[in-house]
Amino acid sequence: MDPLVLAAGTALVGAMATDAWQQARTSAVELWRRVHPERVPAIEAELAEVREEVLTAREADDADAETGLAQDWQRKLQRLVRDHPELARELRRVLDQELAPLLPRPGGPAAPGTVTMTATAGDNSTVIQGRDITLR
What is the pTM of this model? Predict the structure, then answer.
């Protein structure tokens, strides 16, 4: 399966468990709206149903169930891109600009644009992180 589709399906399902799930839903629906506007109500209903399943899986700590849901959406996205290759570029944009920023960063806050840097210095050592830093 296309790595883009794998990443997008996983990100979509992961974003369903966040407070920003409506934004993720809108991003996914827009893909279908471009080529299958008649399917939009069904896609919206399915996304809402899957969100409930994702939340239930998270509550039960059932990673297998969540993986299965991601695989379902990966297959849907794969068929969409296979049948409409012109959507591949839009799917990349949606993944990079809309879905990925909604996901929590490992070990850090979920807020987009937040950078957390941690350093420990001992004795007479110096730590320099980043560049062009202005501290006030």
Answer: 0.74
